[in-house]
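job 3f2a | input accepted
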Amino acid sequence: MRVLVLGSGGREHALCWSLAASPLLTKLWCAPGNPGIAQVAECVPIGELDFPALVAFAQDNEIDLVVPGPEAPLVAGVADAFEAASIPCIGPSRAAAQLEGSKAFTKEVCDSAGIPTAQWERFEDAAAARAFVHRRGAPLVVKADGLAAGKGVVVAATEAEALAAIGAMMERRVFGEAGAAVVIEECLTGEEVSLFALCDGKTALPLGAAQDHKRVGAGETGPNTGGMGAYSPTPSFPPALQQAAMDRIIHPVLAELARRGTPFRGILYAGLMLTAEGVKLIEFNVRFGDPECQVLLPRLMSDLLPALQAAYDGELANFDLRWNEASSIVVVMAARGYPEAPERGSEIRGLDRAAAEPGVLVFHAGTAADAQGHLRAAGGRVLNVCAAAPSLRAARDAAYAAARLVDWPEGFYRHDIGWRALETG
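job 3f2a | predicted structure (425 res):
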């Protein structure tokens, strides 16, 4: 098979690493890719939102399957663009991708399908949103209705924090048009986990669970980020509870979207809260999480490529996947100043030493090569140091030992990834 991956981050590096191992693969491309991805795939200098150029490239190179990584092209309709050109693309249509493109759409789907989630209201007027905050009181969660790169959520412990979030999103437009409308919902309490499933429109195949660390600082302090680390499996989310989430959340949303005439095909990501009343949905995403993908795929024993093809073909009912029992962890190395104003351009050394550690993989998330071939920071989240081992403690120790071998004074990382599982374990 001739395969094209879309994207340029750590998730896409992990996808390319996994696909490159398939005996079914003839040739692998990634658009636009990054220096790490270039070690396992041919990078193509086409932006992930340049649909005409992507389609033309796929036609010229007789691509058999397109695998989109990020949410932005999916929400913008990249799967529809390839479908119109009769090129297989394993991702939801623009209509189905509204599960991530609009928080309000997701809430309406949940209400229709009877999916347990937080009570909510949507607002297009800042004054009305503020009045609602005064009526309801804190704590509340304020969410930009549209895409905000994982950062458009404020968990407001006080009314003042909720009002400030409304002003930032709706009036100052810190997230652009994504914050033109906001969803304000009750603040669920419990432990957060992420559940993933591969879907073919009617059948969902579990891809496992992971726990992300969204806050920039140790002990879950500081602003939300795109994710500072993750681990899998999650002791707080045992198989029986995962099956309950599949039955109460994943299967009903697939049925509801099929009923609406917009069946979901691709990776479905359910952000969940384990509350005292049971599992509740926080949000849906329509692709692998980043950095959760980087801890799930190293645990996959089966070939990813035929699984993606089976999802595209609607054949998952007769498909199964095998997973190893190892624990996997990823430590995100970010540029100084992230998430508000990450510094770019600093040189990174020592990756070969880090990647040579037993059980360690280093995925590039925001890197670029300069004219002399030196590796430079080119984003907020720059590197993903991953490790797999028989226990989470051993995996964590290996990941941090590797991270210390990276020579990058301008970078930083959290030192407590996996703390919840290790404290309770």
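job 3f2a | The mean pLDDT is 96.
job 3f2a | closed
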